[in-house]
Design a protein that fits this description.
With 317 residues, this protein is an alpha/beta fold. It contains ten helices and 14 strands.
């Protein structure tokens, strides 16, 4: 998959016969996103033209709420890898700034979609909005389609348990500690990925060595203590208990993902892991003493083991 940040760098020769385009944040790659991507990749194969996912960095929501941006479900790298695995041909991710903020509906369609991406088929969700003040919708796209010679495919929302699947709904579920609801909306466990870095070895001194992962995001979608299942290690999936936060007992400032792997004793510094969140156990809290913290950590481990055993039984059934 090609990553393109500027229209001038687009492989225009490859787009001579056109492209199939979709536009959106694609944060989390939930079932609604995957339904769109299914239609994009199918349309690309049918027409024998490249597939293009257009997104923005930062996202429009981050741009307009710069002081308190919404939590990302995926880091940029995770999104890139997921789209590549899906078979997308080009990931076009321009910067969202003042120029894009103020672009008119007509300019977005003509200059970006048609002249820039040579879009011949556009796949969008039923709530898609674009351009200045979100004035553009499927109505404007359909109105311009005959003259600009592209077709439109509208893909309906996915509904799970009466809830419209969206990145916002998933963030809300995770923020509330409702991991099962987030899992249902995502169609899989919520996952954080990253490389294991050296920490202060506080957990090791307490008898709970942890694999530490830098969050590399301004806001985390999850905070607290969780039962987790870790993928990406040569040993295969490993169960554990994770803490996401600032460790208030030790007054840290920068949030960190720390995972204590059960029945595991190997140096894993530098390895890239994927942490699946299975159940929220409790919120972070500040303890009066280290002994009180260690006692709670033992309870957390027991609760995590029980939760993961129950989860495995559910999957087996």
């Amino acid at each position: 998959m090609w990553l393109v940040r500027h229209l001038s760098d687009m492989p225009h020769a490859s787009l001579a016969r056109g492209s199939v385009v979709t536009i959106g944040s694609y944060d989390g790659l939930h079932p609604g996103h995957r339904q769109l991507l299914d239609r994009v990749t199918a349309g690309s194969a049918e027409r024998k033209v490249p597939s293009i996912v257009m997104s923005f960095e930062p996202t429009p929501k981050e741009f307009f709420a710069a002081d308190a941006p919404p939590a990302r479900l995926m880091r940029f790298r995770e999104k890139f890898e997921a789209l590549a695995d899906y078979g997308v041909g080009i990931f076009y991710c321009p910067r969202f700034g003042e120029a894009m903020r103020s672009i008119s509906v007509d300019s977005f369609i003509r200059q970006v979609l048609v002249h820039g991406l040579n879009a011949r088929h556009i796949v969008i969700g039923d709530d898609f909005r674009f351009a200045r003040r979100r004035e553009g919708s499927i109505v404007e796209l359909e109105r311009a389609a005959p003259a600009l010679q592209y077709s439109i495919e509208r893909v309906p929302s996915v509904i799970v348990d009466g809830i419209r699947v969206s990145s916002t709904a998933i963030r809300e579920a995770l923020a509330a500690g409702e991991v099962a609801r987030a899992t249902a909306l995502l169609g899989r466990p919520y996952r954080m990925s990253g490389r294991i870095v050296k920490g202060r070895k506080v957990g090791r001194s307490l008898g709970y060595a942890t694999a530490n992962v830098d969050l590399r995001r301004r806001q985390s979608a999850v905070m607290g203590i969780y039962a987790v299942r870790v993928h990406g290690l040569p040993e295969g999936p490993v169960d554990g208990v994770a803490s996401v936060g600032t460790r208030p007992t030790f007054d840290l400032v920068k949030p960190l993902l720390e995972v204590h792997l059960f029945d595991f004793d190997r140096d894993v510094y530098g390895e890239y892991i994927h942490v699946d969140f299975v159940e929220h156990l409790r919120n972070e809290e500040k303890f009066d003493s280290v002994d009180a913290l260690v006692a709670q950590m033992k309870i957390d481990e027991d609760n995590a083991r029980s939760a993961l055993t129950a989860h495995s039984r559910t999957i087996d059934v």
